[in-house]
Amino acid sequence: MEYNDEMFDLIPSEEKNINEIVRPSVTYWQDAWRRLRQNKLAMVGFIFVILITLLAFIGPYLSPFDYSSNDFSIANKGPSSVHWFGTDQFGRDIFVRVLYGGRVSLIVGYAASALNMLIGVLYGGISGYAGGFVDNLMMRIIEVIYSIPMMIYVILLMVIFEPGLKTIIIALAISYWVGMARIVRGEIIQLKEQEFVLAAKVSGAKSRRILLRHLIPNCMGSIIVTLTLSIPSAIFSEAFLSFIGLGISAPKASWGSLASEAMQGYRVYPYQLLFPALAICLTILAFNFLGDGLRDALDPKMRK
Question: What is the pTM for the complete model shown?
Answer without folding.
Answer: 0.81
